[in-house]
Task: structure prediction
Amino acid sequence: MDAPMTLKRVFRQQNQAFIEMLNDMRRGQISEQFIPKFHQLSRAIVYDDGIGPTELYPTRNEVEKANNTHLAQIKENAISFEAMDRPGLDEDGEPRVTLQEMERLLDRLVALPTVVLKTGAQVMLIKARPQF
Result:
């Protein structure tokens, strides 16, 4: 697994004030001077391809609330999918971590142990799977 990277240089923005606004937002400490400017950026988003824009939230609870709200608007039957998690094995076929360690690690992931979907729900892949 690759080490995490921190991107520090802004390439696509030239406006220094806007860069500072974005950096404030990233840090979660928006300066009073930027709040009205962020409100000015608010607008209705129109899209014609049937794919809604990605919504970002700071906590898992807020993500769950938004997902459940969108799912409730779909008039189809819900289907639950349960994860089938198992610890990875080492070269001798022995578990690399205990079941307790695995559960603790899985609890920190974005993926939930149960995913509820409906036909027509928009989903986002959060981890690329290797080719079979």
